[in-house]
Amino acid sequence: MADSGLVVVDKSAGMTSHDVVARVRRLAGTRKVGHAGTLDPMATGVLVLGVERATRLLGHLMLTEKAYDATIRLGVSTTTDDAEGDVTATAPTDGVDPDDVRAGLARFVGDIEQVPTAVSAIKVDGKRAYARVRDGEQVELAARPVTIHELVVHEVALPEVRISLRCSSGTYVRAVARDLGAALGVGGHLTALRRTAVGPFDLALARTLDDLGDDYAQVPIADAARASFPSVDLDEEQAAHVRVGRGLDPALAGKGPHAVFAPDGSFLALYEQRGAQARPVAVFV
């Protein structure tokens, strides 16, 4: 059986996230492989996969912040808010002031309400939004709260704008391109997107599928848990309680998931404070 852990892949353009999962399933010799948030086929960069027991960590890793490098093309709007969609409108960018571009992007930093792109994977009445768009339906999604922690403008060489950003889970970079273009009155879409980090897992750890080979790179589940969550080292008595799902002293785990470890360093569970005790969020033994 494959060891439990994470595989940090540098996804190439043209592949779906499912393509990457299928490849790692073959390499690891197990069906128990999943990913912590999709990347569009156009996008490249960090895709975090879990193998065996580590698949149960993925839902928690999906909630962490992410980082991206992106290129925006102003003056052209598309059906998908990226270069893969059909062009719906064009406008000259000769009159756009680069200072207005920078000011427009600065307004996205912080807690904002963002309307997801219509071709997102969000379900509308049980059906993915992108599937409804593909079937010719008009899809209107409600705005959602997201946070852009940092946005750096590297270059404004109109009609192109190169940026980097760190943002909360659920943020659509394509929507940033769309909304910037709308604010400037010329439209806009995303022409390139590279995810540079998912939480603590960045491009320095990532390997392409070709580089993985049969010796696929893994972050052991204990290392992944320590890197991703506040860590708590238990004594033998406390570890025994965790193994049967009992509560712990609330002082051991505060708000949000905390990774708890046995004295020998093995990862046992995620715990968080709930009322008068720290209770298990997920147990891995």
TrEMBL record:
It is an enzyme of class 5 (isomerase). Keywords: Isomerase, tRNA processing. InterPro entries: PsdUridine_synth_cat_dom_sf, PsdUridine_synth_N, PUA-like_sf, PUA_sf, tRNA_psdUridine_synth_fam2_C, tRNA_psdUridine_synth_TruB, TruB_C. Residues 25-173 form the Pseudouridine synthase II N-terminal domain. One of its GO terms (molecular function) is tRNA pseudouridine(55) synthase activity. It catalyses: uridine(55) in tRNA = pseudouridine(55) in tRNA. Residues 174-217 form the tRNA pseudouridylate synthase B C-terminal domain. PANTHER family: PSEUDOURIDYLATE SYNTHASE TRUB1, TRNA-PSEUDOURIDINE SYNTHASE. Belongs to the pseudouridine synthase TruB family. Type 1 subfamily. HAMAP family: TruB_bact (MF_01080). This is tRNA pseudouridine synthase B. It comes from Nocardioides zeicaulis. The gene is truB.
